[in-house]
Amino acid sequence: MKLYELTIAKAHRGLKKKEFSCLELTKSFLDRISNLDKKIFSFLTITPDIALSQAKKIDDWILQKREIPLLAGIPLAIKDNILVEGVRCTAASKILENYIAPYDATVVKRLKKLGVVILGKTNLDEFAMGSSTENSAYKVTHNPHDLNYIPGGSSGGSAAALTSNFCIFSLGSDTGGSIRQPASFCGVVGLKPTYGAVSRYGLISMASSLDQIGLITKTVEDTKIVFGAIKGKDSLDSTSVESKIRNQPYGESRATAKFEIRNCKVGVPKEYFIEGMDPAVEKIIKNSIKKFEDLGIKIKEISLPHTKYALAAYYIIMPSEVSANLARYDGIKYGFSKKKAQSLLNVYLESRGEGFGEEVRRRIMLGTYALSAGYYEAYYLRAQKVRTLIQEDFKKAFQKIDLILTPVSPTPAFKIGEKITDPLKMYLSDVFTIAVNLAGLPALSLPVGKVSNLPVGLQIIARPFEEDKIFEIGQMFEQI
Ligand code: GLN
Fold it and tell me: From the CB of 426, is ligand 1 less than 6 Å away?
């Protein structure tokens, strides 16, 4: 096995046994990135100096016979909307072209403490708005399985980098599917944790009631390791909580004592098998569900009746929050500024007009409209009521079952350029992932098959803060 093919668990063992040094491990990734990323375009910034000095530090730890944590010396890539102190952070937007992060995001701080090696920052759709990584102001990332296809988005750079063996794991963010959908399209494991399970401090905000930092790995075992390292309460994010708290309204948790995965009940919602879905994807998903059944897990059809309103509610709530969050980019406080503008108002207008891309401007306008006097009740308020109904659907379902299985996306990856001129078509590719964000639940994308050479992911959804159940059933599948 090549060094760049290792999982976290295997790399850790190798480092401890001195089969290779951290410097060798890190260089194997840096070399691969410099040789091959010109075909994939997954990185926006590469940080070899930081990586090599972190690697040297870990080699010193090992030399001094210090007990090294599991993540010590493990090279990772970070989506370019998560701040790393002293490193450029663009959110793939021209408006942040020269923005240097003044502090570390809490997740980065926690990981640095454990001794990770930061290789660089990955491409995304501008401000994480998109499903294909084509909305970046800098480059289009390609799917490593077929370079004519998109890797998914918005964490497409993180998913493509991992799939190309440019890192051992990567960080992303998920507001409506941005970790799970690219993980599905690239054939890797992607986790969106429960809302609040991982601190959002230092994540560039898109839609704050939906945003969640998560991760992409090669195996569920690795997901468990990284999630364990980044989760937990952070005083800098008041929505973060300690993961052990279980939410009673979601039904009595069977996981408090010893959770017996074989005794767990799994629901498959009928609303997630819709017309227009690729029949080959449907077949792979149904086959994978059958495999769980063969292992003795009880599968039950369930109903989440408000699913059909999720996309519409999301595309009111998300742009409303976007319009408020992105008001801070005024050409004065951060990055790009149209200095030659005639007046202060023109500095604002021209900096925003030129600094933001088309999709970002579209969403700011939609959100401003939905929140404006006279329309607020008809759009925003109504969408929030629908959001509550969607949450209630899940609560009711989780009183009888422990986990939910669905497809991640109705199709495999699509071609570069195929949907970019038709925003509605693009939005529809999120139809199976956004209800999870609206309800704040944890969900994982697990690779379960391929349509020709394009991967397909199964979505595993759990009650809030029950990521452990997702990991157990996911690992069970990996062992088949
Ligand atoms: N694709 C969705 C959107 O465009 C989700 C984005 C995300 O999760 N950041 O909004």
Answer: no
Looking at the chain, how many residues does it have? 480
Where exactly are the structural domains of the chain? 1-480
- Amino acid identity at 37: D
Query: In the CATH scheme, what architecture does the domain 1-480 have?
Result: Alpha-Beta Complex (3.90)
d(CA 167, CA 188) in angstroms, rounded, equals: 13
Q: Is residue 240 among the annotated active site residues? A: no
Q: Are 224 and 193 in contact (CB under 8 A)?
A: no
Residue 250 above 50 pLDDT? Answer: no
> Ligand 1 centroid vs 315 CA: distance in angstroms?
10
Average pLDDT over residues 104-116: 98
pLDDT tens string 41-56: 999 999 999 999 999 9
| Pocket flag, ligand 1, residue 420 (CB < 6 Å) | no
Task: Please confirm whether the linkage preceding 429 is cis (ω < 30° from 0).
Answer: no
DSSP reduced 3-state for 260: coil
pLDDT for the residue 37: 98
Sign of CA dihedral 281, 282, 288, 291: negative
The answer to whether residue 256 scores a pLDDT higher than 70 is no
Q: Could you tell me the distance, in angstroms and rounded to a whole number, from the CA of residue 18 to the centre of ligand 1?
A: 42
pLDDT digits (tens, 9 = 90+) for 161-202: 999 999 999 999 999 999 999 999 999 999 999 999 999 999
Does the C-beta of 131 come closer than 6 Å to ligand 1? yes
177 pocket-lining for ligand 1 (C-beta < 6 Å): yes
Q: Evaluate whether 461 touches 436 at the Cβ level (below 8 Å).
A: yes
Cα separations in angstroms, 185 against 71, 145, 398, 445: 26, 9, 28, 10
pLDDT at 261: 78
Q: What is the pTM of this model?
A: 0.96
**Residue nearest to ligand 1 atom 4, measured at CA:** 130
Atom of ligand 1 nearest to the CA of 207: 9
CA distance 124 to 9: 28
Closest ligand 1 atom to 318 CA: 10
